[in-house]
Request: fold
Amino acid sequence: MNPFLKYYFALFVVFILAIPIQSYSSDTTLTQVKLQLKWKHQFQFAGYYAAIEKGYYKELGIEVELVEANVTESPIDALISGKAQFATSTSDIILLRAAGRPVVLLATIFQHSAQVLLVSGTSKIEYVHNLAGKRLIIEPHAADIIAYMKDEGVPLNKVIQLPHSFNINMLVENKADAMTAYLTDEPFLLQQQNFDYKIFSPISGNIDFYGDILITSEQLLKDNPKLALDFRTASIKGWEYAMKNSDEIIELIYNKYSKRHSKEHLAFEAEKMKKLILPNVVPIGYSNHRRWEKTVKIYQEIGLLDADADITGLFYTDYINKLNIPWNIIIPFSLIFLFLSSIAFFFYRITQKLKFQIKHNKSIGNTLKKTEKEYQTYFDQSMLGMAKTSLEKGWIEVNDVVCNMFGYSREEFVDLTWDKMTYPDDLEKDLLQFKRVQAGEIDNYSMDKRFFRKNGDIFHSSLTVNTVRKADGSIDYMIAILNDITERKKTEKALRDSEMRWQFAVDGSELGLWDWDIPNNKVFFSKQWKEMLGYEDDEIGNTSEEWSERIHPDDKEKVFEDVQKHTDGKMPVYKNEHRLQCKDGSYKWILSKGISVATTDDGKPKRMLGTHADISKRKSDEEKIKKFSTGFEQTSNTIVITDINGNIEYVNPRFTELSGYSAKEVYKQNPRILNSGTQPKEYFAELWKTILSGKTWKGEFHNKKKNGEYYWENSIITPVRNEKGEINSFIAIKEDTTLRKKAEQALKESEEKYRLITENVSDVIWILNVSKNKFTYISPAEEKITGYTAKESLQQSISERFSQESAKKAEETIRTTTPKFIENPSNKITQVNNFQQKCKDGSFVWIEVSSNFRYNPANEIEIIGTSRNIDKRKKAELALKESEEKFRNFIDKNKAIIISVDPSTNRILIANKAAVDFYGYSKAELINKSMAEINVLSADEISKIASKAGGNKLNTFHFKHKLANNEIRDIEGYPSPVKVGDKTHLLIIIFDITERKKAAEALKNSEAELKELNITKDKFFSIIAHDLKSPFNAIIGFSKILLEGHKEYDEEKREGMIKIVNSSAVRAFKLLENLLTWSRSHSGRIPYIPEELYLKTLLIETLYNQEGQASKKNIKITDTIHENELVFVDENMIATVLRNLISNAIKFTPKNGNIVISSEKLTNSNFIKISVKDTGVGIPKDKIDDLFHIDKNISTQGTEKETGTGLGLILCKEFVEKHGGKIWVESEAGKGSTFMFTLPVI
Reply:
């Protein structure tokens, strides 16, 4: 039965049983219970805090007290002993149950275990199998980690095991290569230290245990099932609230329960836990029995559980009273004559209830076993020394750590006494605390003390003693926890000695000393520290405020930031320069340095030691140098300072920018590294002669950059003298003149080029002085165009050079453009005009004139321009224009749709009125529109067809054209190449054939639909006549036998007949279900309501319904569907698809076979592919194409003679295609089949 149905059925039964005592008034006393947590307060238990805070427990009459974990008693012991009624645990409950501990699972909170392996991000451990031979810190009972490692080929005997101290610094400080950790906790601490790490999760190795769970005792569930279920209900409600309101619960934990974790740490836990709990995917509290069975097998494989281990009674539903249904009464067969589908469904449900009752009745009555295995494991595997003692028995038990610590065996401890093992000087303070315990004043105490080893050596140990008392308050026994701290004590003594020597050194220096006790905010300031600020020794107190309040306001933020970085471990040594206020009110610059010399148990600094140094003079000197160098640094000129020998001592950034050499590269180098070799040696000899005589040298260098590029510099080199008047260095100030040099050279080259161009170019180049209305230059090409020499043309005015109409146009252009140029001379607009120029023989020639206005050196306006002979082109254009005009008139007056297209660009050149009316665009919009804009084909396909039409290889074509209103019309086109000038255009006459095509298509569809309806009708009646008749024959036949002679048969015979009736009813029900679904689909009565769903959730529901069918044939069904895989589908339709495909896979797979369900996101697509793969009989190739066709009878018996109708795959095809997907199959006879289909995702 579906676990969800089990759960609600159990609640219903308890409700019925509890009716007489269900109601209580608000005055009724709340039931007091304790929930034992398995760790300290943190977000890991958020749901329980929420249930208390929101009143969910009180609503059901329960008052809850949360109890943190402690070292003296495990949560399981607290639960079994009755000190707590509920507890939190993990998948280890299986081990406890198998060992006879009467604990019961109420609800699963974490769908995945939080246990992971952490390794350094910089290590070479890339895979789990790399852990072989490495140091591993591992917790006891980390079963999923152990199984994961074993599966990867690294059992525990292949690693170096270290006890777990829950201290991440073991990994950070490279004292271990890997450690087990909680995904919600340790990674945050590593991130806080900026420590790079890698995570290996058992889930990646398909080891998927449940994580945190809620448990209770078997006794409580038997005595008060209502209390157990009410507590479960309220807890789940609390968890649902916590998952939706994590920020609120973080504030609640931090302000009410514990500040052990920061809010940031709690937020980190919350985010990670959501991925483990999956509140939006799986109902909180949900458990899958098959996953628990798989976990049992893993425990058995790794040796933590015997092969015959019995975990009966693990689930709370095993204890809920079932309804006493009188199973000996035969199912009322009179219902057989009711509607057929109702009968089938009734038999199916009754049979499932029978199976459920039989299954759970087997678990009642198992004997209880008691053991302290869990506590003993913790005691033995602890990395701390643990000993159990009492006043009467002395040493009751010691672990291996204690034995190794003292050097005695367990047997030798029997004859030892506490006082003989204790160093005499420490005995009195220990006895004093013990007497307080005896008197009942305290139950536990801690101290550091010294002990003797067996060999006589003295060692230091921290000691924590916890007392367990009897009911009368007397001492039952005591637990002593010891930790060898000898090395720490040696380190502390060495530090004290070092501090004394350091203090002596500081006293003899000018440094001020400070020593800060952080927890108590006490600071020792040395005499020198106080004198540095002008104070006497007794004028400054011993708090940190004496220092912090004297910091300059502008420096405080950076100072406190650096201190915080050091205390957080992000800065190895604290170092900061800041200003402190002196006694007289002035400020001094101080260099402060410090380091943490002692830490708390959690690694936080508790003592810092440091010095202060007065750096005021250094700061003053730096400021002066800064002011002096700022000018050098920011100037656009190159600055170079050399010694007396010319070796470079300083260059400014501009030097590096220009030459490409860094300051470091040229330091102590001679400037000759820049020498290009293009200037004579005598030039440099004169330079040295000048500057060595004490004079300033001015000149020009042609240098070479680091990249080999040449450049020019104007330089001024000045000698610098010292106090004695001696020259000790030189300063060179240099200006980059490369661009100017290039410009000068370019000007010379330009002038020469201009002369050559004007004398040889075919265009006429001319200059007109506007102010004087006279041509000042005309190039020799004038004679080739007009027959006039350049000299003759210079004597002509504008009116003499051009035709009358062109002269007027030219003069008007000059008149209108001149004011615009005067107003904005920088606007260099090129004027292009066509004129008719007079020739020497009296004819006229067309010329194209390009011109610009400018000022000449005399500040007069002139026009410089060119004239090009375009006479032939102009006359051809006029002739073409006349021809085109005639062609357009012919087309525009034609009633047919006509367009002209340029085949090279596929753009419309001409469109007549009929085309404008048809396409719905204006003529301006239609002209120059690409054919791709009105054709549904791609541009490439259109180009290919246009190419064929242009080459007379295509006489007609059919397209779908899109109109301006987006309507698609079918057209028939007749293309014809037309020569226009030197180009070929495509003239197309178009006819609208849309209505004609619609009529033909309608006729075709009508025939296909009629054929499909006939096939569907035949298939439907075939199923009614044959497939439906068979199961009802069996139902009627065997039910008649039972009705007439059930007393004549024994119980086994009757049960066999009932099973046949049930099997037939199930077959009839499934057949009717498919028939009804198929019928509703064809009649259009199935609503299509797609929504965003988790594919995993759909699959889980389907698998539960198929579980019984698969179990009969011992078929293993696995899936690799990701829990966060979302699809956008109609839930009922896709559930039908999954059910049919999985049912078919089971049907055609022999016993002990396998079925795998997987998904794959398709690249460059919004679809996902789902596959159902079996190891069945496969499908012959000649049958595959007929699977999804209604007119083909493909119904085949399964491997166990199961029957079917063939409708399932027809429904699958219809529903998948409804979602825009497709379905297909790949199969090989004898090897199995894989059915695949696609679904949309968002």
User: Anything to note?
Assistant: The longest helix spans residues 994-1027. The radius of gyration is 49 Å.
